[in-house]
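ASSEMBLY PREDICTION REQUEST
Request ID: AP-0331
Submitted by: J.K., bench scientist
Number of chains: two
Total residues: 459
Priority: normal
Notes: Please return the full assembly, not individual chains.
Input sequences:
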Amino acid sequence: MKTIIFAFLIAVILPNVSFALDAAVKGFIALDGLNYKKIQRTNDSLNIGIGVLDLKIFAEQDNMTAAIKLNIDGNLAIQNNLFEEAYATYRGFKNFKITLGKGVVKFQNLHWGVVANTYQDGGTILESENSIRKLSNKALLAIAYGNKGVGYTNTFTLWGDSSDVQYDEKGNVKYISNGSATSKFITAYETKAVPSFTTQKQLGLANKFELYRTQDWTFTTGQMYYKNKLQDKPTYAIDFGATLDSTVWEYWLDAIYGFTSKSPFESYTTFRKNEYFIQTGLQYHIDEYWSVLTNLEYLHVKDQAHTYTPFTLDGITYSADSKINKLGKTVVSSNYKLEIGAQYKLSKSSFITSGVLYERKLAALDGIKDLSSIKGVYNPNTEAFQLLSSISFWF
Amino acid sequence: MKKWIQCSLFTFILSMFLVSCAHQPTQDRAVAAQNSKSCWDSVKGEYQNYFDSVEKCIEKQSDK
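STATUS: Completed
Returned structure:
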């Protein structure tokens, strides 16, 4: 009898100390079946293989969600680079979401084009000069309020880079340099991948406001601010976007103004960079299976380089390596890209897209136009086109 | 010994049943299934928004 009572008590108590844990693995794969590329002044090429491959693992338990996105195509030799996102979200307060971890800082209205990604996420054949891009791999704390039911969502994020510049015991910045014992050429700062950031060294802020109007329209505005200890000026950007998502029409718009200033030996450094970006696109669903789509992007960048002065530290004279020293010159560049294509739905979670892309890049160095080569600028004054068929599959 | 096996089985089955009931309120089950289905149906294969849409559906499923 004792055993029965004991068993009964265990059975009654156990559900109260149990939690429902669900986990799901989700992925997105795009395979390039035919990718023909022709860049002016270079040989044409045909590429076949993986275009995009992303895998994300979700685990949710009551009011908590955790997610890890694997960085499958990243450099796994770098510490903490196995995952490009790893965060936990708590939804215990009504309409609030608190997210902590590493991931993407939201302020733009990002959208894939027809056959290529947006300039904001590296979607270019000719390489673009913009510094304001998708903020991924960032350490972050985000607080979101709202949802479709409330009519809007506001997401405020406190963030920092997931790598830190290193300092020696005297508090001096460490450089990666080469040369002799008395004279060295600096190529970069010494950095280290870190799982968290300190506001003593850097601070990033971002906000995204999404307004839901009617059933299908969403309007967005976002702002971003970032400054680290070594930078004289902060980097900031403002974004406006709109999305229509109906069963027949889809429309997307993203417009950004950004200013960037980096410290002299940071990667992709700039003394002063102003940039303007606009993307607009349309998709029309002819029937259940077929749709046609188009996407247009324009990017204008004015980039002034640092002027480097040699300095002496502990008896060693340091100067900038000739690869990064652009002598304070200014490059003004414009990229534009036009895509047109058709999409056929193969199944509920896969489609095939075929399209053509035309891209042109104009660049001038200190007002001199039509140069075929500019130091530090890929493909100046060049045009390119691409034919691409890809199969996208998600699960 | 046999009694222990019976008790263990009884405990296990009853626990599983009660755990299931505790996390699936009967009156919400049909609504939850319907909402969750329509949410998953609305997930589109747009690369930049795919994982955000998936996360929203997972949260919706969890909230019910």
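REVIEWER COMMENTS: The longest strand of chain A covers residues 21-39.
SIGN-OFF: pending second reviewer
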